[in-house]
Amino acid sequence: MADSGSPPDIPDGSSSGGALTRLNVLSLLAQAGYQLKKGNTERAMLLFGAAALAPHSRGLSYAIQGGLAVNDLLSKVSDTSEPPTGGTEIPIE
């Protein structure tokens, strides 16, 4: 049996994908709704788009999700890259 490189899916006889694809779509829609509620419309629209693409192109959907995750990680790393001063700075006049 050849591995296609994509995660395993449970076939249900439909052409739109299996149980894992449906679960991924529901998860993406929930995330999109949450982001929309928080006012982050750009991220919400990306998640809605990933949800729309998921049944047709799982790879592209996962790539969008991965891109968003990398963006989150980079923003967290850049926020913590400056060490706290701890109040030891002495003003120079």
SSE run: HHH
Largest sheet: none
Strand content: under 5%
Please state the overall shape, judged from the principal axes of the Cα atoms.
elongated
Give the helix/strand class: mainly alpha
Helix content bin: 55-70%
Radius of gyration: 20 Å
Number of strands: 0
The DSSP helix count reads 3
Distance between the termini: 74 Å
Weakly predicted, low-confidence segments: 10-14
Could you report the average pLDDT, rounded to the nearest whole number? 80
How is this structure best described in words?
- There is one protein chain.
- The chain has 93 residues and is mostly helical.
- The chain has a domain at 19-77.
- 59% of the residues lie in helices and 0% in strands.
- The protein is built from three helices and no strands.
- It starts with 18 loop residues before the first helix and ends in a 14-residue tail after the last helix.
Secondary-structure topology with pairs:
Elements: H1 19-38, H2 41-53, H3 58-79
Question: Which structural traits does this protein have?
Answer:
93 residues; mainly alpha; elongated
